[in-house]
Amino acid sequence: MIQIKNLHKSYKMGSSSLHVLKGINFNIKEGELVAIMGSSGSGKSTLLNILGMLDVADEGDYILDNVPIKNLNETKAAKYRNKFLGFVFQSFNLINYKSALENVSLPLYYQGVKRKERQESALDYLERVGLKDWATHLPSELSGGQKQRVAIARAMASRPKVLLADEPTGALDTTTSYEVMDLIQKINEEGKTILVVTHEPDIAQMCKRIVKLKDGVIIEDKKVKQVLASSYV
Amino acid sequence: MNSLKVIFDRDTWQEIFGSISKNKTRTIITVIGVLWGIFIYIALSGAAKGLDNGFERQFENIAMNSMFVWAQRTSIPYDGFKIGRNIVLKLSDAEYIKKSIPEVQYVAPRNSRGVFAGAPPLVVRKNKSSNYNVYGDYPEFTKIATKKIYDGGRFINEDDIKYSRKVCVIGERTQTELFEKNENPIGQYIRIDNIYFQVIGVHKFIPGGGFESDGDIFIPFETFRKLYNSGDKVQWFTIAAYDDADAVNVEKDIKTLLKRIHRVSPEDERAFGGFNLGEIFNKIVGFSKGMTLLSLIVGIATIIAGVIGIGNILLISVKERTKELGVRRALGATPSEVRNQIILESVFLTMIAGILGIILGAFVLFGINIATQDLTDFPYTNPTVPIKFIMGALFIMVFLGTLIGLIPAQRAVSIKPIDALREE
C-alpha cells in the first residue's frame, strides 16, 4: 500500500538547516496497523506529514496505492488527500461551529457527494463509532473521547485507503485512550490500513507492527503481538 | 472547478451561510459597515434629488429662460436730457425687442393696479367685496408663465384684446371670497372699479415666489388700457428667450436696445431694471448639481470604507480560522475551493449589507417625503434615487467585495495546511 524509499527532509532554520529525516525506507502492506514511535524531534510527525501530503520530501520516493506521489501542486494534493487519506489529529481539529454530523460529512462535501447521500453516509459512520445520538451536537458539547470518535468517523467517511493518526490518544485519559484504540483496532480488523504516531508504549503495543524512529532514521521495525484494547475496557 | 457552478450550488451557500451565521458578531459588525455606507449614499442622493425636484417645482410654472424688465430714472445726463428723468416703457418697445433680438421668443407687456403703483382696485360682487390686484395682460403671458386654469374656464385670448372685452380671470381666493360655495363663477359678473367684467376662468395659484398671489385678477391689456387710461405705458415686460439662448446676454441686449430707443446713455446702468430668472435658475441648477455630485462622492467613499471594513474583518477572521481552513485543506478542500468560499463570503456579506442599506435608505426617504409633503414654501419634492444609480451602487459593492475578498482569500490559500494545523 505504501512504499517509501530513501526519504530525506530538512528544514531551514535561518542560516543552518535541520536534517530531520535521513533516509527512511519502509513498506506498509494493505490491512496493517503500524505504530510509529519515537521521542519528540525524532522525525515521526514530519514523516506522517509527508505521508499525508501535507509536506513534501526533499528527496526519495513515495508510492501510495501504486500512485507515485511527487510534484504535487496544492490542488492535486488536496484531491489525493481527499481520495486516499483520512486524518486523525491529537487535538481532534473538529470545526467548532459545525455539528458532529456536519463535521463527518465535510470530506464528502469536498468529494462532491450530494447532500442527502452525504448525510446518510455521515450518519452511518457516526453510528459505527457509537455516536448516532450525538449527531446534532456541536463539538463543544462532546467529551474528548467523543470528539476523537467523531474525528475518526470523519476520517473514515471519505473511504480512504489509509488512515493517518497523529497521537490520537495524546489528549485523552487512559480509559478513553483505550476506547479510541479499540475503535481503531476494529476499523483495522475490517481491513483498513492504519498508521498511528504515538510515543506511548502501551498504545504502540495495541498495533500489529512498531516502527521506531530516532534522529531521523529507523532504528527498529518489528512485528508485535497485538494487545486488544477491548481487554482493558 | 467551474466557478459558475459553484455559485449556483446549494451546498456552497450552505457552507457560506453556515460560516457566516456561526460567527454572528463578526457578521453583524461587518454588515453594519457597508449598510451604513449604502444608507448614507441613498439618503444623501435621495435628499439631493428631492431638493432638485423641489427647485424644479418652484420653476415649473414659469419659463426657465425668462426675465422681467422695467424702467426707472436715468442716472447720467445724456443727449440734452437732465439726470433723473423718468423713463416710461411703451407698448411699441415690445415690437422693437421682438424684431431686433432674435433670441427673444415672447414679449408680454404688463400693467397692473395694486402691485407697484396705485391701490388695489375694489372688486364687488353682489353684497361681497374686497380689494385685489388687477393685471392687464396679453395672451403671450401664459406662454412665459403658465397659468393653470380650472376646468370650464380659459385665459385671455387674442379676441379679448382685439375687442377690448370686459372679461377677467380670477384667482382661487377671489372665487371663495366673492362667490358662494358650489357656485360656478364662469359667466358671472363682478365689478372692478365700477365696471362690470365677465368671469371667463379661475386660475390655480402655484406658489413660486414673486409678487403674485391667489387673489390676482387678470384682464385683457387693451381693456386695462381703457379702464385706467394708461395709453401706451407699460409697467414692465415679461420676456422669454429661447431655451438655448444665454439669458444674461439677452437681458443685456434688451437693455441696450431700450436705452437707444429712450435716448438713455449707454453707460447708464440704473435707467432700466431687470430680474433675470434664467440667471438665477442656472445658479440653482448648478447648486443642485453640486449637491448631487457631493452626495455621490460621499456615498461612494462611505461604501468603499465599508467594503474595506469587510476586507479587514475577513482578514482577521481568516487568521482566526487558520486552523479550520487547514483542517478543510487536510480533508481535501482545494485552494480554489477555499479561495472561492472566502470571496463568496465577502460578496454575500456585501450584498446582504447593501440590500439592507438600500431598504433602510428607502424608508428614510419615504419618511422625509411624508414629512415634507405639505411644505409649500420649502423647495422639496419627491426625494428619490434612480434605480440605475442603486444598481450601480450594488454593482460597485459586489465588485469591491470581490476585490477586497481576494486579499483574505489569497492569504487563506497561502497558508500551508501543515502550518495551519500546527498552529495552536
Please describe what this structure looks like.
The complex is a heterodimer of chains A (233) and B (424). Chain A is built from 7 helices and 10 strands. Chain A has 233 residues and is an alpha/beta fold. Chain A has a single domain, classed as 3-Layer(aba) Sandwich (Rossmann fold), CATH 3.40.50.300. In chain A, the strands form 2 sheets. A 6-stranded mixed sheet of chain A has the order 6-7-8-3-9-10, sandwiched between helices. In chain A, strands 2-1-4-5 form a 4-stranded antiparallel sheet, covered by helices on one side. In chain A, strand 9 and strand 10 form a beta hairpin. Chain A is globular and about 50 Å long. The two termini of chain A are 31 Å apart. Chain B is an alpha+beta fold and 424 residues long. Chain B folds into 2 domains: 3-59 and 283-422, no CATH class; 113-239, no CATH class. Helix content of chain B is 54%, strand content 16%. Chain B has 14 helices and 14 strands. In chain B, the strands form 3 sheets. A 6-stranded mixed sheet of chain B has the order 11-6-3-13-1-14. In chain B, strands 4, 5, 7, 8, 9 and 10 form a 6-stranded mixed sheet that branches. A two-stranded antiparallel sheet of chain B has the order 2-12. In chain B, helix 3 runs antiparallel to helix 10 and helix 3 (24-58) packs parallel to helix 12 (335-372). The longest helix of chain B is centred in the C-terminal third of the chain and has 44 residues, at 277-320. Chain B is elongated. At the A-B interface, helix 2 and helix 3 of A face helix 2, helix 11, helix 12 and helix 14 of B.
Write the layout of secondary structure elements.
The complex is a heterodimer of chains A (233) and B (424).
Chain A (H helix, E strand, L loop, with lengths): L1 E12 L2 E13 L4 E5 L6 H8 L7 E6 L2 E2 L5 H11 E4 L11 H12 L3 H14 L15 H14 L4 E5 L7 H16 L3 E6 L2 H5 L3 E6 L2 E7 L10
Parallel strand pairs in A: 3-8, 3-9, 6-7, 7-8
Antiparallel strand pairs in A: 1-2, 1-4, 4-5, 9-10
Helix pairs in contact in A: 3-4, 3-5, 4-5, 5-6
Chain B lengths: L2 H6 L1 H12 L2 H35 L7 E6 L17 E2 H10 L3 E10 L8 E4 L2 E4 L2 E4 L3 H4 L3 E2 L8 H5 L4 E5 H7 L10 E4 L2 E10 L12 E4 H8 L4 E2 L1 E6 L5 H15 L10 E5 H44 L1 H9 L4 H38 L14 H28 L2 H6 L2
Parallel strand pairs in B: 6-11, 8-10
Antiparallel strand pairs in B: 1-13, 1-14, 2-12, 3-6, 3-13, 4-5, 4-9, 7-10, 9-10
Helix pairs in contact in B: 2-12, 3-10, 3-12, 4-9, 10-11, 10-12, 10-13, 12-13
